[in-house]
Structure formats: structure tokens, C-alpha cells
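In this supplementary section we document a worked example of the pipeline. Step one takes a protein sequence of length 226 as its only input; no multiple sequence alignment statistics are reported here. Step two produces a three-dimensional model, which step three serialises into C-alpha cells for compact storage. The input and output of this example are shown verbatim.
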Amino acid sequence: MADPGADRAAADPGAFAGPAGPRLVVKRVADVAVAALVLVLASLVLLVAAVAVRLLLGSPVLFTQQRTGRGMRHFRLLKFRTMTDARDASGRLLPDRERSCRLGRLLRRYSVDELPQLVNVLRGEMSLIGPRPLLPRYDRCYTDAELARFAVRPGITGLAQITGRNAASWDERLGLDARYVAQWSLALDARIALRTVGRVFASSGVSADPAGDMLDLDQERGMSRL
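The serialised model returned by step three reads:
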């Protein structure tokens, strides 16, 4: 099957031109150093979370899903599993809200489920700060202006997340992603990181069922799931 993201990148490679220069080297070095340090410091938390997921939810412990990254290239995002595999009489997965469990809500509340993405950072697939990576089926849905979000590595957190987290509309989120790329600086990354830490400790803006709070991007924009 053709990759619509690759098609758009090939048709207009200039659409993904983003920040350049020594500051990006500093950003990448900081990403690797901080990701490695946090993985070491949070090793006990990671172990406890992995054991809890294995005992209460079963295998697999990690949830993996294809997402679209820099240059609209696809990669496998890592997260701790936070939902059951409960299905209806026809064998279809129940809605997220019905598959949510106390452990999953706890992991999401304090963003522990996101910690495995530090491995994505070390692999070079993600950054600590940047636009959140979205599903490949959305690749056809972006406006030309919104394609700017693919000029940088996607992030574990970003400008859209500290501004509205799960409450912002798609237009707002994607507009903030494009604004982040246009205004990017190391100072901006530092401000986003500090505000993210504050939100995590306050456990604010987290939804038990993010998918139920708003339409999927392709549905909102009337795009078919190809």
C-alpha cells in the first residue's frame, strides 16, 4: 500500500524544511543526555510499572503503535499498556473508556505510561520537546501550513500539550505545532519542559478517554480512512 506521507514528502520536500544550525546539535545532545539520565533515575518506577501491568493487564506490557515522525517517516511509538483487551459479543474492542482500568488511569495521570518513549528519543525517532506524533492515517489530513510540524522530530511533550493538553481542538493543536517550529529556540524548549513538569506533578489536563473527548482528525475534516 502506498504511503501518503512519503508521497507528500517526495512531492514537496521543501514543506519539511525546519530549524537548522548548531542549536539543533545542542538539542539532540540534550535529548540523549536527559533521556538516558531519566531512564536511569526512573528505573525503579519503570520496573514497578512493568510488573503491575504484567500482573493486572497481562502481556504485552508495552503498547506499540505506528506514528508519523520527522519528514513524515513512520516509526513504532512505545508506551506502557493502560487498557484491557475487553471486547463485545462480536469480538470488537470496546471503547477506550470501557477498557480503562484503575492502573491505567494512574499511569496516565502521572504520565508514567509515556516513559518508554525515552527509548524512542535515544533511537533518534523522537525528541523530548516537539509536536506530538500522530497516527499515519492522518497523513492526508494536514493543511500545507500544518506540514511544518514534520520539519522536526516529534516530542514526548510540546507547546500544544502545555497550552491545552487534551482540551484543545485539532485546529488549535496543529496551529500550535506549526507555531512551535516557526518560533523554535532552546529557551522555548526549556519553558515547555518546566511547564510540563509542573503539569505532571499537578496531574492536570489528563482525560480518562482522550479519544472520546473529540473527533478523530480524519473524521473532523471529512477524510476517509485509506
